[in-house]
Amino acid sequence: MTVTRLNLMLLLAILGAIALATAGGEVALSAAQYSQAFSEPGSGPWQVLWEVRAPRAVCAVMVGAALGLAGAVLQGLLRNPLADPGVLGVSATAALGAALAIVLGAAALPGAVEISALAGAGLAGLMLVAAQVRLRSPEALILFGVALSSFAGAVTALIFNLSPSPIAQAEVMSWLLGSVQNRSWIDVAWVTPPLLVAGGLALLAAPGLRMLVLGEEAAAVSGLPMRRMRMLALIAAAVAAGAAVAVAGVIGFVGLAAPHLVRGLVRGDPGRLLLPSALAGGLILVLADLLARITPTDQELKLGVFTALIGAPLFALIAWRAAREWRS
């Protein structure tokens, strides 16, 4: 299967999933109400479809695409099938920025939480770029990222623990669980430009990611500016993951799973994997959000919880398969 055909199939599947997520939901609409939603702007059914469900579905696609792209970039950069945006601490520092803004009372200001989350992700990106100059091996960079993630998670927990306001605590907890509930077209506008920037940077880094498949020595003598390409890859992953966390909170395992679903179809080429991974991530998240919405529970399941329930067994399977390959 060609990459173009794969991308087209994934795009059509996403459009179908968006249509399904917009048409379906916890509250069923009658045929007359659907007709009213298309013919009478401003009516109740119109608002349900185009101001509640549609932006939520599109936002889920964009967030999933950002996570899928970040996962593909990091797995290629680190040459590690278990890498995802949470490995290098980008998601954790973005969540820390958002939690700090919420506790300080800035959540009432439009865009304050999103900007704080992006600033946290940017700080993590700068630290990783500085670290990769000194830490030559991917393993050392992974260990640095794990330490950064643990520290950011600990500070976030401390902020949550010391917050004097129960309301702020509830908002922080809701953010950490991850969700696209009540997202609007404004949130879609928040996540889309950073995703496009990250995609452009990732494409610039793609030749370096391909060369890394041959090993560090081959990459070093390839003539490519590998240091610059590594830097571009790290920035791309940080921007994409930060945008996802800024809009939807912490959602795990999508960045891990999406590249694995399409890797075999692009023959393991890290450069050709980028766009299919983004599309697969968007498809995964919009379907997961739809399932979380229609699952019969007293309270709607948080999207981050739902993806973790599905992603944790997948992570264990990938780890088991990777361990078998390493032993062989």
Question: Keyphrases for this structure?
Answer:
single chain, 328 residues, mainly alpha, ABC transporter involved in vitamin B12 uptake, BtuC
Summarize the structure in words.
The protein contains 13 helices and no strands. It has 328 residues and is mainly alpha-helical. α4 packs parallel to α10 (226-248). The longest helix is centred in the N-terminal third of the chain and has 35 residues, at 44-78. 77% of the residues lie in helices and 0% in strands. The chain has one domain: ABC transporter involved in vitamin B12 uptake, BtuC (Orthogonal Bundle), CATH 1.10.3470.10.
Q: Which structural category fits the helices and strands?
A: mainly alpha
Query: Any idea what the shape is?
Result: globular
Number of strands: 0
**Uncertain spans:** none
Helix content: over 70%
Distance between the termini: 29 Å
Topology order in helix (H) and strand (E) letters: HHHHHHHHHHHHH
Q: Strand count, sense and closure of the main sheet?
A: none
Number of continuous helical runs? 13
CATH superfamily caption: ABC transporter involved in vitamin B12 uptake, BtuC
How much strand? under 5%
Looking at the structure, the CATH topology is ABC transporter involved in vitamin B12 uptake, BtuC
